[in-house]
Fold this protein.
Amino acid sequence: MADLVCKDLCMTFTNPQTGSAVEALKDINLNLKKGELLAVLGPSGCGKTTLLNMLAGFLNPTSGEASLGGNLIDGPGVERGMVFQQGALFEWLPVSKNVDFGLRMKKTDPDESKKLVEKWLDIVGLQGFGDTPTYQLSGGMQQRVALARCLVNNPDVILMDEPLGALDALTREKMQSLVLELWKETGKTIMIITHSVEEALLLGERLFVMAPRPGRVHKEYNLPFAERGLTESLREIKQDKHFSEVREEILTMIWNMEEEIMGRV
Amino acid sequence: MFEWLSDNRASIAAVIIVVMVVMFVASIVIGRKQAALTAKDEVFGDPERTKGGWYWAVCGVSALMLIWFYFSWGIGRAYFPQSANEMCQVAKLEEVISPVKAALPIGSRYYKSTLLVGRNVNQLKALQAQAPPSAFSSAEQKELNELISLMLQLIANSSNPANLSEKSKTQLIDVSGKLDGLSEKLLAGPKNLKPSTEALAQAKWGISNIEIPMLPTTSKGVLFDSVSAEALDLTKLFYKIRNHPPANNKIIADVKVRIEALKKATEDGKFDERATSARNDYTKSVQRIFRRLDDGTIFPATSLDGVSTAIAKLDNAKDDARGSLGIIEALFFPGQGVVKSRTQCTEQGSARWLPKPTDVVATFIGLANPDLENGGGYKGIRLLWWKWLPVSDVVGFLMPDWVADIWPGEYSRHGSDGTITPNLKDNLLKFVQGDIYLGSVPMLDGHIWDSVFRVLVALGLGILLGVPLGLFMGVSRFFKSFFDPLIELYRPVPPLAWAPLILTIFGISDDGKIFLLFMVAFAIMVISARTGASGTQLSKIRASHSLGATNGQIMRNVIFPNALPEILTGIRIAIGVCWGTLVAAEILAGTTGIGFIENVARTVSNYEIIWVTILIMGILGLIFDLIMRWVIDQTIPWRGKG
Ligand SMILES: Nc1ncnc2c1ncn2[C@@H]1O[C@H](COP(=O)(O)OP(=O)(O)OP(=O)(O)O)[C@@H](O)[C@H]1O
Ligand SMILES: [Mg+2]
């Protein structure tokens, strides 16, 4: 069982100059079972990225611990793939070399990795783009390359930090379908951070709404829309009455949090 | 070929000028047309406006060439070589009469006599005011006062026209009369004067002889030449005239006696050391001024009026006799014209330091000629050629001798019969010392290659060592903090400030220059690689960590390519700086190289070679830069697009 588990995870940043401390996260508890899709939502600065970076192993928690399948997380690893907001592609390599980066680092047999790369480029809809330099791709295509690069490594968990944030509405919708499709086909555990309430509702089988100062999980939802999204059209789901109700509820919640922050400042 | 070029100089110049003028005008016409076409859809300040426009480049280059041709007297030499020869003869006359002019308010501001009177009177008054009271008794002070008054009287007598001796008067009138004779001769014109065969056989200006031929080749020139020969005698005559007014004779005798008495008093008086030296100094000053007055070089101002007028007349006659030459000189020989000094007639002004374009080409062809026996190359070394390089030399240079020393075993000893049988270790030593013939490879050779080779080796070493260090400094706190002070302490020192030290340590061989350039290239490469490495986006590094890359793999596959644009830009800058430093280092010390040529040419004021070396350096620098730009375009198309 490769569950992603957090126990009383805390993170405090201290400014080395002023000595003032920011409690970015406080007592985060999380248990994400294999194959679950968790969306994380919250006002800006509530610690979403910090949480993700700790799970990826880029940051060490001040206290508490995180583990994957019982193994303590204390550094980056291939079993936890990352997708960044801006792709973070290697612009000096063509698409195929970007995708097989992880395989080359592991010194996989070239023929085998070639097959894998082709398979994944096919899945994300980039067949024939293998030799294109990445800087010639559109934002949406670059994000697909980033997804393929992460998936070709066959990680247990995929961590995504606002992966669709920089895309236009139409491309975004296509990418949302793609994420759902990949989730269904691969059965991977996925944690996705987003700023868009709609996206969180559509993609999140589970949904965390986080609150700032200190960063904590404010409310947790279990939602049916992701399951439905596998078969129905996303636009139809958005018309759903239940969908609108939850959306309004969360929007009000975040709105109030923002108000509260403004009031305090 | 040069003979032919110089014989047809006028027609070649005509072709060059016509081509240049046509290019100049045509490019302006094309440029204006193009401007009219695009003016509407271009906004001022839009960088697009600077793109293209080869015609303006043509316009600029042809204008530059025309200006160069004109100011270097290229046109003058092509069409008026005789005029230059005539200018040389005029310059002869000017040189000859310039000493006379210097005594009159024509060549200088004052009469020479006025200057002498002013200076002597001032010095006498100053002496009068400061006779040291400790050294001279009051009686002596009075005596000194009288002595100086007498000397002032000498000056007054010499300045009075009434006192001028008859002999001096007739001499001055004689000189003026002869000067007038010269003026008339000039005004009468050349008539049927003919240049000598010797003059016509002279080397022509600009072929074998860089300077203008000395002997007159035209009748006008012969006239000026003969007048200047006569004027030389006149000048000597003028300088022999002295003014010794009879009224001065008694005073001079009196002053002499008084000075002798003063000297004797000092000798007999048993003064202490300080007083003696003060008295001696004072007496010497008085005596020095007296000798000048005794010389008779002060004339009454009015007495020189006659000579003054005659010289002014001669100047006018000279201008008249020059005639059309004056106009040609003003139009085609910009600058200070021709000046004669001792044995040469030299071009003055821009033409002196700006060689004619054709001369520059000829000099370059001469330098580039690989045939050393027939005057090619420079100082016994070709400009750029090739040679057979023994491979063993390279091996001997690259392999240190201790490679043989650490080989197991002993070097062989001489046997009891006095023979030596070399063993493997001996042969290995020979090999690393380059004593075994291993065949030869063709290799570039010559001054240019020597310079380029130094830059390339230094740059190669700088890249090889500087880039890895820079990359590590970009990612490691230890490397950054440990090496930063070392590099930042030596880098800001201008490379040329290191040159004397390094060249003193290494001597004039290649090692010193290569080391100096290496220092320059190394610092630049370290800094650019470091900037490139530390500029890597954090998300890219995190992504590669998550993809399972090790630290070494990240270094090679992420940080290095990410720093590549900076590194290549660094190489481009380093080449430029190395090139600049190299030439200066070669000027300081060296026996080959472009800078060496320029330095030797400097010591003999050979402007043509100096210009040729400057042009070669400029062109090579440009070639380096173009190559680097091409490399950058080819290797990092992604630059700025990450
Ligand atoms: N390296 C750091 N040093 C100091 N404080 C930090 C650091 N990184 C994050 N913080 C602070 O931690 C808090 C949470 O930051 P985080 O980036 O996780 O927010 P976020 O939820 O991802 O916001 P956004 O939605 O805008 O991306 C913020 O208040 C931020 O100021
Ligand atoms: Mg964030």
User: Anything to note?
Assistant: Residues 491 and 523 of chain B are 6 Å apart (CA to CA). The interface with chain A takes residues 537, 539-540, 542-550, 553, 557-558, 561-562, 564, 636-638, 641-642 of chain B (CB under 8 Å).
